[in-house]
Each structure stands twice: as C-alpha cells, then as structure tokens.
Amino acid sequence: MTTPDLDSLRLLVLVDELGSIGQAAARLGIAQPSASKRLSTVERRLGLVLVDRTRRGSALTPDGRVIAGWAHRVLSELDGLLDGAEALRTQHEAQLRVAASMTLAEHLVPGWIGELKRWNPGLYLGLQVTNSDQAAELAREGKVDLGFVESPGALPGLSSKRVATDHLVLVVAGSHPWARKRRPLTAAELAITPLVVREPGSGTRETVDTALRKAGVGPAKPLLELGSASAVRNAVIAGAGPAVISELDVARDVADHRLVPVAVEGVDFGRELRAVWPAGRRLAGPAAALLALAVRSRRA
User: pTM of the predicted model, to two decimals?
Assistant: First the structure.
C-alpha cells in the first residue's frame, strides 16, 4: 500500500460532496478522463474499490464514502497546518527580540525603537535590559535577534557594528575634596582610590578596568559594586565615593551641580557602543531595520 497524493484525495472528497466525477473534475479544472484515471490510481494504491462505475454514472462505494470521510479529515488537518505555519511566519515577521545594556537601553535604544515603530506600527518588540555580558550571551545563543553592548573587548561568536560612541567621566559629589581640585587627577591617583563601580559583566566596569590597564595602573579598586548606573549615580550623590560612569548617565546631574566632573590625565575613557548578532547570520526584517536606524542615527 502506498500513500495517495493530496490532489487525488481532494478529488475523492469532491466526488463525495458533489455526487459526480464530472462535477468534481470541473471544480478542480481537470478533464473527466484524467479524474477517473486518478481515482483508479488511488484504488490500486489502497487496494479498495472506491467508485461504483455504471452506465448511469459513477458513485462512491461504501468503502469509498468511508475513505472520503477520512480524506476530508486529513485535508482539514493539512489546511490547519498551513494556516498555523502562515500565522507563525507572520508573527515572526512582526516580532523583534532585543537585548541592551543599561546605558544603551536608557538613553539610545528607546529612540531607535520609537522611530522603527513609526515605520512599522504593527511590530511587536520585546526589549530585555541587562548588562553587556548578558546581552552578548543572549545574542550568541539566538535568544534575541539583536543585542546592544558597551563592552570594549572581543566578542567571540558574534558579528558586531558600531552604532554610537560614548565617553566615561569621573564624577564626585560637591562635598568631595576632588570637586575643588585645580589640576587633573593622575591615572595612578585614580587607580589607588576605591570607586563606586558596576558589577562584573557590565560594559562600564570593563571599560574602566581596560582603560586603567592600558594606562599601566591596573584595574579599578571597588568600594561598592552596584547593579545599575542609577544606583551608582545616587551613591556618588550621597557621598559614598567617586565613580567613573557614562556621561550620558550623569549629564543632567552635572548640569544641576549634583555631581562634579573631575579631569583625569593619561587615561582614555572613550568607548564604542555596538550592535551584536550571531556570527555568520545575515540580519533581515525588523532586526536589519533597527540596526540601520541606529547606524544612521550615529552618522547624523
């Protein structure tokens, strides 16, 4: 026994519904002799007589009606499968999963997303806010379509593209002695001073440590480890100690004199902010559109 083809099953169901091979053939747009030949092939494959052929016409046998009923169920299930696949495809086309480090998520990504939504109002977008290490890992594992990170180091297993530049700044509360310092701080002075820092895995923490190593004075000495830029900012304002943090995060506090920037000589705290996705994968659809918006925003 071999499996009948789907077109022949559709023909059998139509014969059952319309009561005639000729009408069924006309509905499918094929000649009646071709329809009869197809039904004969189905009979041979199943080893059953499905059509009672007489001079007065043709009708399904009892076995034919049973098989036609089963064929109708098979075709209905197939239609459900195809409809479901189409729904899933449409859902994927209208869905974008993004992970972003906190600085990017707070200051840059919302603007890019807003512009993308203006172009594609039906887009469903999920944004996961985490640190750079986790955003990169989510992209590497394919759990998000696109990640945005601050990490300055290599990103194995990922393709990347610069979407913005950022600069970290050393800040203190107005009551701190450095707030009245007339000359720039040296790299060595900064390195021996305990700082309020982000947690390991943060792009900001990695940028600070990398910059101090390049200056030849080693990584930062943690005074407090906190899980967000807002927590670091508030701790510095409260007088806990100095911190090196993105100028994006403290611009308003500096303007309002809640924080005072302190110059540091011999240390480069500049960094690139990057979009990341799995190496070897070509971005398409909403992910490609979001990346293009981010790059265009940088150029502008």
Answer: 0.67
How far, in Å, CA of 80 to CA of 251, rounded?
55
For residue 73, what are the CA distances in angstroms to 41, 61, 285?
A: 21, 19, 36
pLDDT in tens, 32-71: 999 999 999 999 989 999 988 877 777 899 998 999 999 9
With CA atoms as reference, report the closest residue to 261 among 165, 166, 173, 167: 173
Tokens of 269: 């705290």
- As to burial, measured by CB atoms within 10 angstroms (0-12 exposed, 13-18 middle, 19+ buried), residue 197 is buried
Q: What pLDDT digit, counting tens, does each position of 254-266 carry?
A: 999 999 999 999 9
* Residues 196, 190: Cα–Cα separation, whole Å: 12
The secondary structure element, H or E, covering residue 127 is strand 124-130
Q: Looking up tokens 């189905």, which residue turns up?
A: 42
DSSP conformational letter for 160:
E
- In whole angstroms, what is the distance from residue 274 CA to residue 276 CA? 6
Residue 120's SS3 state is coil
- Scan for tokens 């923490």, then name that residue: 205
CA distance 15 to 9: 10
